[in-house]
Amino acid sequence: MQIATWNVNSVRQRTEHLLRYLREASPDVLCLQELKCVDEAFPWQEIEAAGYNAAVHGQKGFNGVAILSKAPIEVTRGLPGDPADEHARYIEAIVPHDGGAVRVASIYLPNGNPPDTDKYAYKLAWMDRLIAHAKTLLTLEEPLILAGDYNVIPAARDCADPAAWINDALFLPQTRARFRTLVNLGLTDALRATTDDAGLYTFWDYQAGAWQRNKGICIDHLLLSPQAADRLVKTTIDKALRGDDKPSDHVPVRIELA
């Protein structure tokens, strides 16, 4: 079973990129972030013609998450813990597979910049809610994959130039501490379970030749419950897509489960 995550940075602008990825990589499940459209504007027809069911939690102009699946899915929208939060940043689905099921979430965690504003307080509060929800999900003792754009650089090896990010909300100590708290609930970072290499990135800014100079950061992660981690075969960063014409600034990360 292949499960992938990808911040497409506008699904309407990248529909052709997305359809090509579905044809070539053919993941069983694909988690999308930063759709930047309402549900009605999502390319339903094209996705269904490609052989996928789609569950969408959209928002006008920004945010937006989705889960695409070859199999029919049961869906829950929104992260529990704050009924007043209207940001479309979390969607969760139960995906049947081989007589059982896996639970998959697509996550678009807040950026939090500038860190001296309410945006950073919202990021930390959102992470606290995610930690609480993950703790509940782990009690179910089932294969669980929390996948998405976490907007977190976990460690210095996850960015080409740590000094450039030292005061950024993605790399601040409080951000990294909460990410560790989440992982320490009993989750496994799929990439780091398969390699300790530095220089593995999932995002390259559009500015200052970041892609050409490989000045990237790793902020797209798949966190696995013990029941999913036991089945982990490999993790792949589909880096080549960043070299496409008019690409997303993120690339997909894909895992294979036995």
From TrEMBL:
Entry note: cofactor: Probably binds two magnesium or manganese ions per subunit.
Matches recorded under CDD domains: ExoIII-like_AP-endo (cd09086)
One function term, GO molecular function aspect: double-stranded DNA 3'-5' DNA exonuclease activity
Any one biological process term the GO annotation gives: DNA repair
Residues where Mg(2+) binds: N7, E34, D149, N151, D249, H250
Organism domain of life: Bacteria
Residue span(s) of domain Endonuclease/exonuclease/phosphatase: 4-250
SUPFAM superfamilies: DNase I-like
Site feature: Transition state stabilizer: N151
Keywords (A to Z) from UniProt: Hydrolase, Magnesium, Manganese, Metal-binding
Active-site positions on this chain: Y108, D149, H250
Site (Interaction with DNA substrate): H250
PROSITE patterns, per the entry: AP_NUCLEASE_F1_1 (PS00726), AP_NUCLEASE_F1_4 (PS51435)
Reported cofactor(s): Mg(2+); Mn(2+)
Site for Important for catalytic activity, residues: D220
Family: Belongs to the DNA repair enzymes AP/ExoA family.
Protein name, UniProt field: Exodeoxyribonuclease III
Organism lineage: Bacteria, Pseudomonadati, Pseudomonadota, Alphaproteobacteria, Hyphomicrobiales
